[in-house]
Amino acid sequence: GEYNVILDGRGNPVCITQTKVIETMPFNLISQEHAFHEGEGDRSYDYWRKVHEDFFNKEFKENKKTFKLDAPCICEVFELVFK
User: Fold this and answer.
1) Taking the model in full, what pTM does it have?
2) What is the mean pLDDT of the chain?
3) What per-residue confidence (pLDDT) applies to 39?
4) Distance CA 53, CA 59 (A)
5) Residue 36 contacts by C-beta under 8 Å, 6 or more apart in sequence?
6) Which residue(s) pair with 15 in the sheet?
């Protein structure tokens, strides 16, 4: 039920969201439904998985670590409260 003020790239508030659910799960078990609701690209699971694997591989490598497909990820479901 926590509220969050979302900022743009310049630090200006653009909306308020309310957290509905937070789950921690291995990357490789994140559902197609969650990928769809993130709303990126064509909203397909294949697109979501590719861009997230690329991102995590890069971030882990920059920190001298190796990304593994069973790495824990925090998945949040939220609702737009005010825009």
Assistant:
1) 0.79
2) 96
3) 86
4) 10
5) 43, 44, 45, 48
6) 6
As assigned by CATH, the class of the 3-82 domain is: alpha beta
Residue 60 φ then ψ, to 5° = -65, -45
* Residue length of the chain: 83
Angle, vertex CA 19, rays to CA 33 and CA 4, nearest 5: 130
Q: What type of residue sits at position 76?
A: E
* Secondary structure of the chain as H, E, C letters: CCEEEEECCCCCEEEEEEEEEEEEEEHHHCCHHHHHHHCCCCCCHHHHHHHHHHHHHHHHHHCCCCCCCCCEEEEEEEEEEEC
CA distance linking residue 19 with residue 2, whole number of Å: 5
